[in-house]
């Protein structure tokens, strides 16, 4: 009798746990769009290739954190963050990036002993970096 009662209680507890998990999963917002903001030079497709969150999935904090890390590891950005906004019955997930500055010109000043072309051969940076 005690075993039967224990089995009934365990079954009831399992059903309550599964029901609670199902309801909680239903509350998570569904991603209906993924966008990137702040791009100037980097291709959007290159950034989106680093994103694991997909349209139609529920939002995951763990995946979002991992996506931010993966985008940052590309080496092109000073800052990466994620924002969400309501969109078509779900949410729009927006990764906001701040690109690192680019070197547009290298100029030497005050040098009279060496030609600029010789100095440019010796430095390790270049325009576009």
Distance between the termini: 77 Å
Provide the CATH topology of the domain at 29-99.
Ubiquitin-like (UB roll)
The CATH class name of the domain at 29-99 reads: Alpha Beta
- Corresponding CATH superfamily of the domain at 29-99: membrane protein fhac
Average pLDDT score: 81
Quick rundown:
The chain is α+β, with helices and mostly antiparallel strands and 129 residues long.
Structure notes:
The protein is an alpha+beta fold. It has a domain at 29-99: Roll (Ubiquitin-like (UB roll)), CATH 3.10.20. The protein is built from four helices and three strands. It has helices at residues 2-27, 44-48, 61-72, 116-122; strands spanning 31-37, 77-87, 90-99. It has a three-stranded mixed β-sheet with strand order 1-3-2. The radius of gyration is 26 Å and the shape is rod-shaped.
Keywords:
129 residues, alpha+beta, Ubiquitin-like (UB roll), three-stranded mixed β-sheet, 3 strands, 39% helix, rod-shaped
């Amino acid at each position: 009798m005690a075993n039967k009662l224990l089995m009934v209680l365990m079954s009831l507890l399992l059903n309550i746990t599964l029901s609670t998990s199902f309801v909680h999963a239903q509350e998570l917002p569904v991603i209906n769009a993924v966008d990137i903001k702040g791009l100037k030079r980097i291709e959007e497709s290159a950034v989106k290739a680093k994103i694991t969150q997909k349209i139609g999935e529920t939002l995951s904090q763990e995946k979002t954190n991992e996506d931010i890390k993966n985008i940052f590891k590309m080496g092109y950005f000073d800052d990466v963050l994620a924002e969400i906004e309501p969109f078509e019955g779900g949410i729009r997930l927006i990764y906001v990036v701040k690109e690192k500055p680019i070197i547009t010109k290298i100029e030497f000043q005050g040098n009279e002993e060496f030609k600029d072309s010789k100095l440019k051969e010796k430095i390790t940076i270049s325009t576009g970096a």
